[in-house]
Structure formats: C-alpha cells, structure tokens
Write a structure and sequence with these properties.
Layout: E1 3-9, H1 23-31, E2 33-38, H2 45-54, H3 58-61, E3 67-70, E4 75-78, H4 91-94, E5 99-102, E6 114-118, E7 121-122, E8 127-128, E9 131-134, H5 138-146, H6 161-178, E10 182-187, H7 190-197, H8 202-224, E11 231-236, E12 242-243, E13 247-249, H9 250-256, E14 262-265, E15 268-271, E16 278-283, E17 286-291, H10 296-304, E18 309-313, H11 315-320, E19 331-335, E20 340-342, E21 390-391, E22 405-409, E23 420-422, H12 426-433
Parallel strand pairs: 1-10, 1-11, 2-23, 5-6, 5-10, 13-20
Antiparallel strand pairs: 2-22, 3-4, 6-9, 7-8, 11-22, 12-21, 14-15, 16-17, 17-19, 18-19
Helix pairs in contact: 6-8, 7-8
Length: about 425
C-alpha cells in the first residue's frame, strides 16, 4: 500500500454496518476487516485524535480533554490548536511519508506536510473566516476553488453537513494534486444531529447516509486517479453517543457548597479561579475538578452526593484509566449515562456573562453543546440544557458495548481482539501499510 486514507466519521457505530445506511463503508469492511473500537478516556475529540495519531494514552500525550487549565495563569482554554500542546510525537514526526491532515485537532504548526485547520481572526467589528494552512497559501487555493470555508456550518446553530462537504472537496483536491501517502480527513456533521436529536433519531440516519456518500466520493476519486489498488481506506469514529435527558451544573453545585468563588464585574458573575477552592472544567460527560490543597475530601464528598454523578476518580482511578497526567484535575468526575455536565455557575440568569448567550468556544470554561441551538425570540444561544439529547465521554464498557465506536479497514491488520480494536492501535495499521 503506497497510500492510506483515514476518515474520521464522528458517531459511526459498528451496528450501522447492518443498517443499510452506509453501503460504501460496508464495502470497505467486507474487503478487509471491521470491529468495534475502544476509545481512550475521556472519549472526546481532542483526546481521542491525539491517541490515534500518537498511539499513546492521555497520561503520555497530555491532551486530557478538549480544554486545558493552566494552574500558573489561572486560565481555562478550549479548542486551542497548536501542535506543541501534544506532549508526544505523532505519526508525521516518526514517519518519512508525505502526510496531510485536514481539520484534525492540534495540528496548527504540526510537522505534517499539509495542514488545514480553522483559525478565524477576531477583529473589533467582525470575524474573518480563515483557516491556517501549511504550506502557506494552501487554504487560499482551496478557497479559490471551493469558496470560503463557512465556520457557521462547522459549529453553532447553523452547523450542518455542509462543513463535511467542504472538507471532502478539500480531500479530493489534496489527493489529486498532492498525492499524500497518509491522508487524515475529519468528517464532523453526524456529531451535530446526535447532540441535537439523540443517537437513534431520523436526523442521525440521514447524516450517516451523507457521510457514506462522502466515503463513496473519495473511493471513486482514488479509482479515477489510478491509485485505488495501492490505497488502503481506514474508517474510524472517535466515540459513540449516549442519549441524555438533562445536565448537572457542577460549578453551581460547588458554589452552593462554598467551594467555588465568583467575582462580579459590570453586574455579571465570573468564576474566580484564583480564590476558588474547587471548580470544574466540564467536557460532555466528564469533568476535571481542580482542587486547592486541603479541600479534596470536601469536594469529593459534595460531588459524590450529587444526583447525576456516577463516579469520582482520584489518583488511583486516574491511573487505571490512564489519564494521570499533570494537566488533569485533582479529581475527575464522570456523569451518569443519561446526564452530561454543564459549565454554568450562576443562580440568576441575569448574572450570566454575555458569552453564555453567544457561540464563544474559547472563553467558556467548559464545552457548551447548547451552542447548537438558538432562541429565535432573542436571536441568541438559550440557557436551556434540556435541549441537548446526546452526549459522550464516559469510559467504554466492553461488556455492555456502551461507548464503543467503529473501525474498518480495506486491508486486514488483525488488530481486533474479541471483536474490539483499540484506538491506540490505529498507528499500527498505518505503519504496516507503508
């Protein structure tokens, strides 16, 4: 195999092979192998992608969530893109193959030959929808051919399959003009319908069909370019969804217990990271709890008594789930299967910071799926967490199948044991093929 094309289709599960929704993916699986995929914990985008690309667990690569908390600067940041945040080498650092990464996380300034990743420029009066690319000007070539990448289709109330279609266009262009030996393509749109409507919804089924059509397009492109016989296709998903029926506001709970402090600025309340004894950096069904020395037992007692919290990990628990990295919280909370964690801390909605009602992925100290909705009366993001119907992040359960995602390859690698492959072993498929 001279070429490997890795397609990351969020929300795809093994059971979908028998659904009639994904015939092109079925062909790939029949030609090679398919299995349930065991994601690392937490099963969230940045963490799982870092593990797939490095073959390492979070304890080593340090991407412990979609966000990070800097204890020295008291700053929480979500969806930061610099490659240097990943603390281990990834496939393009250990392989001489020509690589291309389209819309994978933590790829800004990466050592990959080709990179395209969203990087809008925020000005005082507007936002410039731009993508960082390597080499410089590569995004501009794509923009000239396919139009501007619309960030609103990638996240927010208008997020849709249009984002995946643009990325697929970029992938076809890259195949034809660059012929990378390793091509990584992120297909995100099933994620939106699963969170909005639930994993078994009609909208998810329609989006799976659209994702399969993209797979068919890329397979046909490889045929048209005369490279299909020397190309392996690997289809993966990062995680499987759980249907949910409500959120647990961990920071509000910590505040009411006297552990979280706020500052009032211009009549709005903000977390005081400096003086809080404990606060939660939430991410879907997982939360890193950062606790000042001497308050861990109290914080744990409060959280364990909270309805909707399934488990609290201490040092031993973090070791067992391989998330014992210095960046992790002193405690890690896991929600019940049918709940997720919101970042909210206010008791009065009028005190919520202005960014709470906006699509503002960088300033919120937690992941906010409510950004997928809009309050038509106010033309703003609502503060109704009951709108969210799907979430993920909990540890996978090999016995029940909860959280197991999807893996298929057009080439047999034999990485699945008892029908389950590990996401950290995807690297072996790429090395084997070269």
């Amino acid at each position: 195999m001279k070429h490997s094309i890795v397609l990351d289709i969020v929300g795809l599960e093994y059971k979908h092979l028998d659904s009639g929704l994904v015939p092109n993916i079925e062909k790939i699986a029949r030609a090679g192998e398919a299995a349930r995929l065991e994601p690392v914990f937490p099963a969230v985008t940045c963490t799982v992608q870092a593990s797939i690309l490095s073959g390492k667990y979070p304890r080593e690569h340090g991407i412990i969530a979609n966000g990070l908390y800097d204890r020295e600067t008291h700053n929480v940041s979500f969806w930061e893109q610099p490659s240097s945040l990943v603390q281990t080498k990834r496939v393009w650092d250990t392989n001489n193959a020509k690589t291309a990464a389209l819309f994978w996380q933590n790829t800004m300034y990466a050592n990959s030959d080709i990179v395209v990743t969203p990087r809008p420029i925020h000005l005082d009066d507007k936002m410039v929808m731009w993508c960082y690319s390597r080499p410089p000007g590569y995004y501009e070539k794509l923009k000239e051919k396919f139009g501007e990448f619309n960030l609103a289709s990638y996240w927010g109330p208008l997020a849709s399959h249009k984002s995946s279609e643009w990325i697929a266009n970029a992938a076809e262009y890259t195949l034809e003009n660059e012929r990378p030996e390793l091509l990584f393509v992120y297909i995100p749109h099933v994620d939106y319908s699963a969170q909005r409507f639930g994993k078994e919804s009609a909208q998810v089924k329609e989006d799976l069909k659209k994702a399969d059509e993209i797979v068919g397009r890329l397979v046909q492109k490889a045929i048209d370019l005369g490279m299909h016989d020397e190309t392996q296709f690997i289809i993966i998903s990062e995680y499987a969804f759980n249907d949910v029926k409500g959120a647990v506001p961990l920071n509000l709970i910590l505040r009411e217990a006297g552990l979280l402090s706020v500052r009032t600025i211009a009549d709005k309340e903000y977390i005081d990271f400096e003086y809080s004894k404990a606060f939660a950096m939430v991410d879907h069904q997982v939360a890193h709890i950062y606790v000042k020395e001497g308050f861990e037992r109290e914080a744990r007692k409060v959280l364990e008594a909270t309805a909707g919290v399934d488990k609290i990990l201490d040092g031993k628990g973090k070791q067992e789930l391989r998330i014992d990295n210095a960046r992790s919280g002193e405690l890690v909370a896991i929600s019940a299967k049918d709940r997720w964690f919101s970042y909210y801390w206010w008791q009065d909605e009028s005190k919520a910071p202005d960014f709470a009602r906006r699509v503002d992925i960088h300033r919120k100290p937690g992941y906010d799926p409510v950004e997928l909705f809009v309050d038509m009366k106010t033309k703003s993001i609502p503060l109704d967490t009951s709108l969210v119907k799907g979430s993920h992040g909990r540890p996978p359960d090999l016995e029940t199948g909860e959280g197991l995602a999807f893996y298929a390859s057009s080439k047999k690698h034999g990485i699945a044991k008892s029908g389950v492959a590990k996401c950290v072993d995807i690297m072996k498929c790429l090395v084997d093929a070269q």
